[in-house]
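Try it yourself: sequence plus FE2/S2 (inorganic) cluster, in.
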Amino acid sequence: MSRNTFHDLKISNIRPLTKQSVCISFDVSEDLKPAFQFTPGQYLTLRANIDGEDIRRSYSICSSSNHGALEVGVKHVPDGLFSSHAMKLITGATLSVMPPQGCFTAELGGKNHYLLVAAGSGITPCLSIATSVLEAESESQITLIYGNRSSSSMMFKAELNALKDRYTERLQVFHVLSREQQDIELTNGRIEGDKVSAFFEAGLITKQTIDAAYICGPEEMIKEVSSALTGLGMPASNIHFELFTTAKSGKKPTKAFESPIEDTTEVSITLDGTTQIFGLDHENETVLAAAQRAGLDLPFSCEGGMCCTCRCKIVSGGAKMDVNYSLQDWEIEAGYTLACQTRPTGKSLTLDFDDA
Ligand code: FES
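Structure, out:
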């Protein structure tokens, strides 16, 4: 079964988390269960036709990977087309859902101390990682630094409290609030590099015990926290991050063409075992934009270089990306690229989505 195919899944439950966020649970039929197995930290791409427009958005799975439940957390974004739509969904409704994807993952089965740093809705993949790890790895520990404006805007507050009660010895949670005064000064304000370093300096986290860090939130926070952790001696390869934002990249590469393109790059794409070739105006188009113009249904979601739904491998030819917020260095070295950000640098480019 193709990992790029959308499937209609029934919503088995939808419950409010805060005034501005909900948790959506899906029913997965027996025949689709293998396709929807996931690794903690992965996300789902949801699709809906909203006012005649095909809208796709990626949301991280928040449930544990150990029990088969499939749930995502959705936070309402002002003027957000999909999140506004999601706030009106009801139990029994159906959504089009792509099987789980993403590399912001924790492979279970070891004995580790994981540092999770999340801001706002960045908690969703971190909750899945925390729950899955604590359940599956009896000797592993989790330290979570979770930033919010206030306790009322905190997603999954009850779930985190329940997890804390269940795993008192192996889970420690620090809530950092920017608009609600707390007794301990360190936990007031926003999550920044200096603040994370201060947790270590205060002895609340011991750097020698941390094996891996997972950071999910806005770009600035990711940069600062990553840099603070590398400054403390953590190898960059042990720091994983996922950018959490809904804005598309500022660059608007797509241009509509009504006549045949003269100056083109020949792009060959293999997807689900089928290879198709089309022309791309390398002055004006990304691979995704040109493929859509040519009528190909490539997998995509954010169109901003953040989700990596459009990840594919360069088989031959040169290419560069406008922006990249999701591929790690090793993936780029291995030849992976994001179709929504890729512009060829030569006269031909061959990409493989089946080797992604
Ligand atoms: S569609 Fe999200 S990175 Fe390309």
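One thing you can check immediately is this: The chain has three domains: 7-100, 113-243, 265-352.
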